[in-house]
């Protein structure tokens, strides 16, 4: 029986008592073949247990003699940078179902959680109690507790908070064979007595580990590096101390090589009451490193450092508008490095004294040149700055060109006092290869993240990666450090004997005790002593993503742009329901339906197309993944690499439907904008027909459309009746128009389905003393693009650019109403589908962008409006592409004495026609309930929505009509 047959037999038997999901689809295996590392390894299947009993049955089955060839690898957030959770065996994803917070005990400051709980999810639940779970991670919005335990994760503030294992009180770990091992620290004085009532397998594990640790104390003491970030996994020094036997220290950091953790009891800390973050800018990065020792004398909570590469990339990112004020530009010298120094205190007076003393130090100490310093006060401001720092890993992947920073030597740790000299040598090493790189990290702990830029599609890149790794291993060892200071060993485990020397055989004994046949995440941490011929996996023995990527046609690689450069950082796995990032992933919890998953599938589809390996089955699986995308474009704004799944989806659909037929609905929706001006002539008849129930059922069945929007009763009105000047097709005499003219660009949906918004904009323009001119109606093309009619979109785009350029040449402002439609003019219209596209010489402003150009403070406002509070629900495309525009509304309202708060919201679930498509209707409604529904129920008509889709969804599902913020301005002026 070959391996494929053995796996199939195993999974068939597993199904009989397994309540979770089992997925052997081509798409799932492909999506789970990558993480945040350079590697790509395709699993044989992906399974999703629902509870601990599923894990027990799984481990009992795999422990049977006939299945000893089967291997299992657990996976949490899947953001590992070293292939920790990649496998050629079966992957066990606990994040989909095992994500419950089981208990919070605020008195004893503990929490009991399942392994799939996300760190930020837990801290959000703990916040009302004034508690949090340390340590802090840059991936905290998607890192699972199980993943943190398996890599013994640490991060910012580790000098104070330590690593994950310092906060683990108890673990439930399912062992090979199906037993559940419950572990907590035992007193060394009477540990054997405490085990008297335990099962024999528990006694055996403790006794054997005690024997290993007790008999080899000298080797353990001399071999394990004494560092804040000393190691990950099999921590024998922490297992046996003067006071305790703590088996959790062995399990934490074991990367699933000893068992599968199902739940954990965690120690919690009080949230610091008063905090400040001092942001110091330096003339060069080396000065930032050298300054760390002196700064540490003031006992800060943490010191984070970032180099100029990351800083410049942050300036182009969605986060910069919130943090720019903390990093002021210097005319004389450029800031080449920054330190973020955080302090906390029990009282405000204590923090002010710390501030005074620290600033005095900065003033008096001159051993390095500091260019700037600013202070962020309180959790909100500090979180804004740290949001930039947290995105550093992803931002480094957004450099231009094919050579991108790669993670393979990126979390080395040395004694902090050696860091500056070590990094100088590290930089010299990389400079010797002529490589670019970015750096950031935790200088207080001696950990720095360094990512050399390589084009992994280059056949020589793998050898260079191995050579650099070998050199860095020697360099790190020379400075008394380790190769893995934070992100686990994974596929770097082959260097373990270098760093642990005589202690490495002890790690092999530990592995053999738990996993004698090497079935649990094999090739990592250690090999079992019971199998002397089995070796650890070398860093160049697993295929890299680049080896697959170079099989994609160059033309396709360029056309699909940044989607090809998805580096797996996992920002799209953000758990926060009030964040717009990828609503389809949030509602399905299926990684196939995430930007990372879709990017992975598109790349593989292009590779197979180019190599002649495509199959109808895989084509349809990729189609299904992309068809589930809402095209909301949140990924484009929020992914640090700017992965653009809506554009990749459009390009894929264009090619896919050259082979497979389209639904008739696609043609109708793609051409909807052109059809509406014709259908509106019979709007009353159309609306009446839509109200006939039998016809609705026929439409649902044939067109697969639900809740089809109706023409607004005012759709047939002439806009000139409301004071607008409607421009005819002839644009030759526009230079004679009044200088106070404002040109309003219509969109099909506001014009015909939500007409009062357009009319109120006309009235608002007039009330502000301007003259509203209506640009001749034309189809925007967004529906064509969304449904992959690229050739038709291209013709439309070319014509529209010429029209808008002509109008803009007269110098009048152009204003659009709906954000999703308006932003097409400055995004999709500027993408390179063809080479002969006219250059864009116009800018269509959003309403608030135009209003900000006016002097509104002198206007009189009704007193009634100033007594109300309004809440802005901005369209997710608008929020993520142009985050400053939301603040613009707030500033406009403030200038007029009106109160406006910005609501943190996810997606409403409508997204153009997505919510009307029958196959997506239920998901659309579920997405709405996650974030929008609670806010609508709370604030109702006080909510102001900028998006047509959002207002439609609220009206459809909550029977509430929301106003556009411009309408409230009109009412109050």
UniProtKB/TrEMBL annotation:
One of its GO terms (molecular function) is FAD binding. Transmembrane segments: none annotated. One of its GO terms (biological process) is lactate catabolic process. InterPro entries: 4Fe4S_Fe-S-bd (IPR017896), 4Fe4S_Fe_S_CS (IPR017900), FAD-bd_oxidored_4_C (IPR004113), FAD-bd_PCMH (IPR016166), FAD-bd_PCMH-like_sf (IPR036318), FAD-bd_PCMH_sub2 (IPR016169), FAD-linked_Oxase-like_C (IPR016164), Helical_ferredxn (IPR009051). PROSITE patterns: 4FE4S_FER_1, FAD_PCMH. Pfam families: FAD-oxidase_C (PF02913), FAD_binding_4 (PF01565), Fer4_8 (PF13183). It is an enzyme of class 1 (oxidoreductase). Keywords: 4Fe-4S, FAD, Flavoprotein, Iron, Iron-sulfur, Metal-binding, Oxidoreductase. Its cofactor is FAD. It catalyses: (R)-2-hydroxyglutarate + A = 2-oxoglutarate + AH2. Residues 39-271 form the FAD-binding PCMH-type domain. The keyword Flavoprotein applies. Its EC number is 1.1.99.39. In the N-terminal section; belongs to the FAD-binding oxidoreductase/transferase type 4 family. This is D-2-hydroxyglutarate dehydrogenase.
């Amino acid at each position: 029986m070959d391996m494929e047959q053995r796996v199939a037999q195993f999974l068939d038997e597993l199904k009989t008592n397994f309540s979770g999901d089992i997925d052997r689809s081509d798409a799932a295996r492909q999506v789970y073949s990558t993480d945040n590392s350079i590697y790509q390894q395709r699993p044989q299947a992906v399974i999703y247990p629902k509870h601990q009993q599923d894990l027990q049955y799984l481990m009992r089955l795999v422990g049977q003699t006939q299945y000893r060839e089967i291997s299992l690898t657990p996976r949490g957030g899947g953001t590992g940078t070293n292939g920790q959770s990649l496998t050629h065996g079966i992957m066990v994803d606990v994040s989909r179902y095992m994500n419950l917070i089981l208990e919070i005990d605020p008195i004893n400051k503990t929490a009991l959680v399942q392994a799939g709980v996300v760190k930020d999810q837990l801290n959000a639940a703990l916040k009302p109690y004034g508690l949090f779970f340390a340590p802090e991670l840059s991936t905290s919005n998607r890192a699972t507790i199980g993943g943190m335990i398996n890599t013994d994760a640490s991060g910012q503030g580790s000098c104070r908070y330590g690593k994950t294992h310092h906060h683990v009180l108890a673990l439930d770990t399912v062992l090979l064979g199906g037993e559940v091992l419950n572990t907590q620290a035992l007193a060394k004085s009477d540990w054997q007595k405490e085990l008297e009532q335990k099962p024999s397998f528990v006694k055996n594990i403790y006794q054997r580990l005690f024997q290993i640790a007790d008999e080899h104390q000298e080797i353990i003491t001399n071999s394990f590096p004494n560092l804040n970030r000393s190691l990950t996994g099999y921590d024998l020094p922490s297992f046996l101390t003067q006071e305790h036997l703590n088996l959790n220290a062995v399990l934490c950091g074991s990367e699933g090589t000893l068992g599968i953790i199902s739940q954990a009891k965690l120690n919690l800390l009080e949230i610091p009451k008063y905090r400040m973050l001092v942001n110091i800018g330096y003339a060069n990065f080396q000065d930032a490193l050298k300054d760390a020792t002196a700064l540490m004398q003031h006992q800060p909570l943490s010191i984070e450092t970032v180099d100029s590469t990351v800083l410049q990339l942050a300036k182009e990112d969605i986060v910069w508008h919130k943090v720019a004020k903390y990093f002021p530009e210097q005319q004389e010298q450029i800031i080449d490095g920054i330190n973020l120094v955080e302090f906390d205190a029990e009282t405000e007076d204590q923090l002010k004294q710390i501030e005074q003393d620290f600033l005095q130090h900065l003033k008096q100490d001159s051993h390095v040149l500091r260019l700037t310093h600013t202070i962020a006060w309180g959790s909100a401001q500090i979180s804004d700055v740290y949001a930039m720092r947290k995105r550093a890993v992803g931002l480094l992947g957004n450099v231009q060109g094919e050579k991108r920073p790669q993670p393979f030597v990126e979390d080395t740790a040395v004694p902090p006092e050696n860091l500056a000299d070590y990094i100088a040598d590290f930089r010299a090493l990389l400079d010797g290869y002529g490589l670019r790189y970015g750096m950031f990290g935790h200088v207080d702990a001696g950990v720095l993240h360094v990512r050399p830029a390589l084009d992994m599609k280059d056949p020589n890149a793998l050898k260079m990666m191995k050579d650099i790794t070998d050199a860095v291993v020697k360099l790190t060892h020379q400075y008394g450090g380790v190769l893995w200071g934070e992100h686990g060993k994974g596929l770097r485990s082959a260097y373990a004997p270098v760093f642990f020397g005589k202690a490495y055989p002890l790690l092999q004994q530990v592995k053999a005790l738990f996993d004698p046949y090497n079935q649990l995440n094999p090739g990592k941490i250690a090999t079992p002593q019971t199998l002397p011929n089995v070796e650890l996996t070398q860093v160049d023995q697993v295929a890299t993503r680049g080896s697959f990527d170079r099989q994609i046609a160059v033309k396709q690689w360029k056309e699909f742009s940044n989607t090809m450069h998805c580096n797996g950082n996992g920002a799209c796995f953000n758990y926060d329901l009030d964040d717009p990032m990828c609503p389809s992933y949030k509602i399905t919890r299926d990684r196939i339906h995430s930007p990372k998953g879709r990017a992975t599938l598109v790349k593989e589809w292009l590779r197979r197309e180019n190599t002649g390996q495509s199959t109808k089955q895989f084509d349809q699986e990729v189609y299904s993944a992309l068809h589930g995308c809402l095209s909301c474009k949140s990924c484009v704004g929020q992914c640090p690499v700017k992965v653009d799944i809506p554009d990749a989806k459009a390009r894929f659909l264009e090619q896919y439907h050259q082979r497979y037929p389209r639904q008739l609905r696609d043609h109708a929706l793609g051409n909807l904008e052109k059809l509406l001006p014709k259908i509106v002539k019979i709007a009353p008849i159309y609306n009446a027909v839509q109200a006939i129930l039998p016809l609705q059922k026929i439409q649902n069945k044939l067109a697969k459309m639900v809740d089809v929007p109706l023409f607004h009763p005012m759709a047939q009105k002439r806009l000139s009746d409301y004071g607008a000047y409607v421009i005819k097709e002839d644009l030759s005499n526009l230079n004679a128009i009044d200088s106070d003219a404002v040109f309003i660009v219509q969109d099909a949906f506001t014009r015909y389905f939500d007409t009062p918004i357009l009319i109120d904009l006309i009235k608002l323009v007039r009330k502000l003393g301007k003259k509203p001119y209506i640009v001749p109606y034309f189809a925007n093309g967004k529906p064509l693009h969304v449904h992959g009619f690229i050739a038709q979109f291209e013709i439309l785009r070319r014509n529209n650019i010429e029209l808008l350029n002509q109008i803009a040449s007269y110098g009048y402002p152009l204003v659009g109403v709906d954000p999703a439609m308006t932003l097409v003019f400055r995004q999709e219209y500027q993408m390179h589908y063809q080479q002969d596209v006219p250059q864009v010489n116009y800018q269509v402003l959003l309403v608030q962008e135009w209003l900000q150009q006016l002097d509104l403070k002198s206007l009189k406002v009704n007193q009634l409006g100033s007594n109300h509070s309004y809440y802005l629900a901005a369209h997710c495309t608008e929020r993520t592409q142009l985050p400053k525009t939301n603040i613009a509304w707030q500033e406009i309202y403030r200038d007029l004495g009106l109160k406006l708060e910005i609501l943190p919201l996810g997606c409403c679930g409508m997204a153009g026609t997505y919510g009307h498509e029958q196959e997506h209707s239920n998901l659309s409604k579920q997405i709405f309930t996650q974030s929008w529904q609670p806010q609508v129920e709370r604030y109702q008509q006080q909510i102001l929505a900028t998006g047509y889709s959002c207002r439609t969804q609220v009206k459809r599902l909550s029977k509430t009509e929301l106003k556009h913020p411009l309408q409230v301005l009109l009412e109050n002026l």
